Amino acid sequence: MGKGHAMGWVVQAANWLPQSAREQVYAIGGVTEGHAPNKLHQVDAEKVAEWITARYPQRRYQAVMVGSASGALTHLSAAFDIPWLPQTFFVPVRHLSGDNDDPVDAMEFGRRYGPLLLEANPELQLHHMHDGNQDRLMVEYMDYFRVKRRTLGKAYERFLEETLEPGGTIIVTECQRKWPTTRIGERHVFQHGALGGATEEEFLHGSERVEEYLERYDSSVRRWPSPEPDGESPEAEWGFEEALREDILRFAARRGYKVKRLLFTEPDDLSPLVADFYRDWYRRRGMKGNRLLVESFIMLEPYWALRTGSVPFWMKFNMDPSVDTIERYLDSHEAYDEINLMLFNNGVEAVGFPQIERWKQVLARASRQGQFIGVSEELHPRDFGSLGRYYIETKQKIKARYPLPGPLPLQRLWDFMAQHGERYAVELRDA
Fold it and tell me: In whole angstroms, what is the distance from residue 424 CA to residue 350 CA?
């Protein structure tokens, strides 16, 4: 049995355990992926970049996206059959003596070990993130080191030179979301909190919601002892570090590539744009475009969206702001006959966690059928088996099948934005 199949069985089997045991399996499963802190100098950003570029077929592309992450971007990449190269990647670091409700201790842990990573990788900057709300289970045993490339580096440059058509386009995806941070070093900041159900203010100064949450989880504190921020930085997981754009412009000018900038503030600001673009595209192909696939964080299916003729709408997480986002979209658009909904399970009823009944109200907006994909209503948000089940249920529950279309010309996106761009919190600019 391969490692992937074995892990899938473990994840599914976790659902048979009592709640506390399921949470421990989830937390321990995360820490097994973590790096030993005293070996962070062994992390090689160029090897990571080589691994990323090797995921794509080595052929010519009309464009390549580089920069911030957004699940909605994967659907644009699929429509135009182009790669996306991330600026940010995640380095989980084992911290077995940590405390999920002590961000100050986490910050000092990063101050001690972060330089090992940065000295070995001068092209990176470190955004050490601690979130005792959404990531409560994970940060009990590990710390979240998110690193952002400040330059393309050899692997990305080589990939662009070998695969981008002469005169092709580099689309720089720039999420402009900021977060209060504490500076540790020239290329090192600490971020307490993250995008999700709680606000920046609640992470820094507490609230009644935070107090109730910490009491419910038997914490020794009723508000987090937050380090005092001394500025703002690109948000650790989603935000764009502008130094990379300058390096892309230098590289593009030397090689004769065009550069476009796709700017947005929240990572899911792109979702209404992408959904409308797909619906319009499907209808131009003679399809109804009346099937909506609502995705959640890492649970997304760009291939099966195309195969099932589903309009994709990606949510950044499973908290109240994500329900608000999909509800606003549905309020302002023609009703869908069918709504299929995925929900990421992080194991915590955190600040800003919506109960399953609110998600069922989203499904009730379908004029014909609304259903969950890979979700156990009774176990959410501790339905860890969903991570191994949503892919299977996407194929099983959505019966329609369509042939894969050929890649769209990039001009189709430029034309769509020129005609409809003012509707969205997204801006397309020439660099």
Answer: 30
